[in-house]
Design a protein that fits this description.
The complex is a heterodimer of chains A (112) and B (114). With 112 residues, chain A is mostly beta strands. Helices cover 0% and strands 50% of the residues of chain A. In chain B, a hairpin with a 3-residue loop joins strand 4 and strand 5 (42-50). The chains are: A mainly beta (112), B mainly beta (114).
Chain lengths: 112, 114
């Protein structure tokens, strides 16, 4: 597929288990943190975002946690399904600007 | 809505040739972004437009790259002359609300320069 390939960290998870994907960011001035999912052969797709004044936000089967002290962001996927197999990217931006900076990505493989 | 539409999906060309990639953003979106994705560098922002005006082109690699947005429904990214190191997947994305980071990406144009 078109997503970044051979050198991605990979998380293998059993179907039905929970997944946790981690991301370290560098810019303490960032105001928004976003998770994107990229399936093979497709463009990245927005999953969930969180503002810097929050430390947790929940969506459907997903939860994003933000720890500004250690500049760490995580995405938790509950009851992982085969359709969750993809590359997941964290991204950050400042509210004053429109530049979205993406991290390197983590590949999630769901085993049946 | 058809989403962001990019063409061509795949292009194979020879070094030195001109390449033009095209993008139709989602109707009503006022911001458009061009990204490049490679194994080595991941997703990189090349340029973005707001209301058809280029705002930040600091990510454009060099003078061989140029982008235009003549109207709200069309943008092009041109590489002239192309080089093998330009081989990548080029994504176009559009956005309505820039206060968050929600971009809508097209399916990409895979470019191979021989």
């Amino acid at each position: 597929g078109e997503s970044v390939g051979l050198h991605l960290p990979t998380l293998s998870v059993q179907e039905g288990d929970n997944s946790i994907i981690n991301c370290a960011y560098s810019n303490s001035a960032s105001d928004y943190f976003i998770w994107y999912k990229q399936e093979s052969g497709k463009g990245p797709q927005f999953i969930i975002d969180i503002r810097s004044n929050m430390d947790k936000r929940q969506g459907q089967r997903v939860t994003v946690l933000l720890n500004k002290t250690v500049k760490h962001l995580s995405l938790q996927i509950a009851a992982t399904q085969p359709g969750d197999s993809a590359v997941y990217f964290c991204a950050e931006k400042k509210s004053a600007g429109n530049k979205l900076t993406f991290g390197g990505g983590t590949r999630v493989l769901v085993k049946p | 809505d058809a989403g962001v539409i990019q063409s061509p999906r795949h292009e194979v060309t020879e070094m030195g040739q001109e390449v033009t990639l095209r993008c139709k953003p989602i109707s009503g979106h006022n911001s458009l972004f061009w990204y490049r994705q490679t194994m080595m560098r991941g997703l990189e922002l090349l340029i973005y437009f707001n209301n058809n005006v280029p705002i930040d082109d600091s990510g454009m690699p060099e003078d061989r790259f140029s982008a235009k947005m003549p109207n709200a429904s069309f943008s092009t990214l041109k590489i002239q002359p192309s080089e093998p190191r330009d081989s990548a997947v080029y994504f176009c994305a559009s956005s309505l609300d820039l206060s968050t980071g929600e971009l809508f990406f097209g399916e990409g144009s895979r470019l191979t320069v021989l």
